[in-house]
Fold:
Amino acid sequence: METWLAVWLATTLLVLALARLKLFISLSYRRQGEDDRLDIDVYALKKLISYHLEVPLVRLARRGGLPWPESVVDTPGGQTETRAGAEQRFTRNTWKIFRHHPRHWRYLMKQLRYYTRIYKRLITSILVAVACEKLSWRTCFGTGDAALTGISAGLLWQLKTQTYAYMQRRLKSVVRPAFRVSPHYAREGVEIELECIFSITLGNVINAIATAIRHLGRGNDRQWKNTQSKV
Structure:
């Protein structure tokens, strides 16, 4: 009896410790000239547990006179490589479904709307428990026209202010941001450095996923009942 009590107590303490485990998500985006880079790091326990993801950026390129999406990724040799195969296959298959199978297209759109609602519910449940620990956004740019650059600088400040206000409304807490806009009136170009660090406890993530799965199950039950009534 004492052994079972000790196991139950140890299990309970372990579950409580995991539920309070704080996860950190770091997003880092840099753009300098034509070079883009987006890095995502997820870590916990002072980076004792960590995972790094480099997201390939998709851009439009002219191929055969038509705009095609392509991604740029870093190779193991330290150089960049342009890959367009996966994006072009996705575009071609989507177009084939839209043109030759309109019923399948309507079914896909219906499924997309359904899962989008589940996704929004999941994201909303997670965001209210997220704290922004760092928010740094520096932009240097120039359009080549002094008047246009000045107007764009004002609009950019407005965009950053609105972004900060939106985060304050949606997130649990937001640290004071470090925003900077540096217009260059004599040259063209854009340089962006954006860094955000968010934190959330593992217990809140599990609760949000469990809530989304419950709604997913209710939706499947409703679809099953509709199918049975039609039969």
About this structure: The beta strands are 22-32, 35-44, 49-55, 57-63, 66-74, 80-83, 131-143, 173-174, 178-183, 188-201. The helical segments are 2-19, 85-100, 102-127, 146-170, 202-230. The two ends are 55 Å apart (CA to CA). The chain has a mean pLDDT of 82.
